[in-house]
Amino acid sequence: MNDILYQISISALPVLLAITAHEAAHGWVAWRCGDDTAYRLGRVTFNPFRHIDPFGTIILPGLLLLLSGGRFMFGFAKPVPVDFNRLREPRRDMVAVAAAGPGVNLMMATAAAALLHVVPLLPATFGAWVEANLVVGVWINVLLAVFNMLPLPPLDGGRVAVGILPPPLALKLARLERYGLVIILGLVFVLPAVGNAVGLNLDVFQWLVIVPASHISEAILALVGVS
Q1: Residue 203: strand, helix, or coil
Q2: pLDDT tens digits for 33-67?
Q3: Catalytic residue from among 23, 89, 131, 218
């Protein structure tokens, strides 16, 4: 239990900041591109309470943390409403709006990595706690960016793909949005379980998200000069 409480103390703030900034970025870019829906609803803000989803921001991360013994936590905020028909250039601007969330997450990961240089200036115990928060901040922001850029609606990568693919292909991909959540849950939970049952490694989430996120995290740390 002490390990779980410590994991909560070093994970809650980075996760909350990551998902809040992600959603706020969507709303801000949409507002700049002509759709003020999110702005009028007060969602173009870094106030986390405007973005908290009771299940995705509180219950789900808590359950994952408990079930994994403090090793894993993930969550999401309330999606920012965007009326793509109000964007000045719907197909072009849809790409910008969708890419804004993962883009901000990568910037936050880089900022968290850079702040690791400040840790040696802090008192030892507090510095260790701050360092753990920053390391989690790097990881969770990169993880969010990579996961959300998978080319499957309703993820951001799916919307980017719909915006840049030729119309016939874009239409076919867009039609998958109604099944997107089911497909994602199947890839993350069901397929690996089936693989374990038959003795095969079918952990697609590991291949497509965890491994790339690990490489990107290492690259960001190297970029800012943190070994």
Answers
A1: coil
A2: 999 999 999 999 888 888 888 887 777 777 766 66
A3: 23
